[in-house]
Amino acid sequence: MHNKLKELLIEELNLIDVTVDEIENDAPLFGDGLGLDSLDAVEVVVLVQKNFGVEIKNMDEGKIALQSINTLADFIKERQA
Amino acid sequence: MSKNNSAENAGRWNSKSLGSTFFHNLFYALIRLAGRRVGYVLLFFVVSFYCMLPKIRKRASYYLRRRFPHAGNAAMLLHTFRLYWNFGQMLVDRTAFKIINDFKLTGNKTNEEQLSALYDENKRLIVMTGHMGCWQMGISYLKYLQGPKAVIMLKADEKADLHSFKMKNSDTLNENGEFEKITIINPEGHLGGTLEMLNALNNNCTLCVTGDRIFGDDKNTVEVDFLGGTIRLPISAYKLSATTRTPIAIAFSTRNGSGTGNFKLVKTISIPKNTGKGSRDKIAAFKPYAQEFARELEQYCQENPYQFYNFFNMWQ
Q1: Do B195 and A57 count as a contact with CB atoms less than 8 A apart?
Q2: A41 and B195: CB-CB below 8 Å?
């Protein structure tokens, strides 16, 4: 799940200077860390919905899910269960 | 990324910046007791006083100097008065709409059908307007459209302005006997409110945005030409449009008399899916669309010079 998420982020967000191994599971996705922004958030939500069938509906869910690869993976697993 | 001055200026400015709480409360009380026209009478004296204040004149000058580049000092003072007079009348009308439901907004059948057709494409729509005319009452015009509505608005304004958007139409009473309400999305919330905007569109919403102000930092903005200079405009709405295949309808509402306004669909924008996606410069891909909006905005300012209400330096 973690590696798949990283591959999807790299591909969908065109993170050409980043490899799967370079993305730490607990590094922040937004701001520091991977450096994504609000525009990327739109793509992340869409790719999660498209590839995992899970919706991130609002700020409260986003704050939980979109902190790092770990939290995003946990959120997806929880919603899929 | 350093904070752009125009974004900072816009964030600081709101209608209450131009008058104390006392005057706002006084207007509310007068209008409630005696109607809109009495509000206009008081407004005349308030606007005349405020136009004598250098700080107030300066706030209008950023726009007026570009709209009327050849105006001398005397002419500029008159332009300033007329701009604030129109703005004040709009605020009085908005208050009358809120508390005594006294405002008549008209449109035309063709525009209504066009907007309905746009909405029906994918059961969602982005309506883009600007801070001009009677824009808040204009959003209320959309009550005839199916589905829920949402407006992007700063949280600080939400409590005061929520009533502006109540769709006062008996056909839309819910099970509690209340008028249909509009969801307010705060653009300074987590991730700029984009998750709420995306969720709104995914739930068949008509999402109303203003395309002429930046909230937060200027990272997701582009530079466009406007009134002889360059300004920065946000591109989030265009990104949402491309990602969700939602058409954008540019619509402007013009105050055309005492307690009356006109809603007009100006242009529709269709952005190809995945525009900017995977692109090295994902932001620049949306510049043409922001420039289209700026062109319409400039045309509006040419036709309605005293109904453009951004009292800060957009060109900084």
Answers
A1: yes
A2: yes
3-state secondary structure chain B: CCCCHHHHHHHHCCHHHHCCHHHHHHHHHHHHHHCHHHHHHHHHHHHHHHCCCHHHHHHHHHHHHHHCCCCCHHHHHHHHHHHHHHHHHHHHHHHHHHHHCCCEEECCHHHHHHHHHHHHHHCCEEEEECCECCHHHHHHHHHHCCCCEEEECCHHHHHHHHHHHCECCHHHCCCCCCCECCEEECCCCHHHHHHHHHHHHHCCCEEEEECCCCCCCCCCEEEEEECCEEEEEECHHHHHHHHHCCCEEEEEEEEEECCEEEEEEEEEECCCCCCCCCCCCCCHHHHHHHHHHHHHHHHHHHHCCCCECCCCCCCC
pLDDT digits 0-9 by tens, B46-97: 999 999 999 999 999 999 999 999 999 999 999 999 999 999 999 999 888 8
Find which of B194, B204, B221, B246 to mutate to test the A interface (most A CBs within 10 Å of its CB). B194
Chain B: closest CA distance from residue A30 (Å): 9
For B235-263, what is the mean pLDDT?
94
Query: A36-57, pLDDT tens digit by residue?
Result: 888 888 889 999 999 999 998 8
**pTM score of the predicted model:** 0.88
Q: Pick from B192, B199, B220: which is nearest to A58 by CB?
A: B199
**B128: which residues sit within 8 A by CB, 6+ positions away?**
B208, B209, B210, B211, B237, B248, B249, B250, B251, B269, B293
pLDDT digits (tens, 9 = 90+) for A1-40: 899 999 999 988 888 888 888 899 999 998 888 888 888 8
Q: Do B278 and A14 touch (CB under 8 A)?
A: yes
Confidence of residue B314 (pLDDT cuts 50, 70, 90): very high
Q: Flag if B243 and A55 touch (Cβ within 8 Å).
A: no
How far apart CA B54 and CA B69 sit, in angstroms, is 19
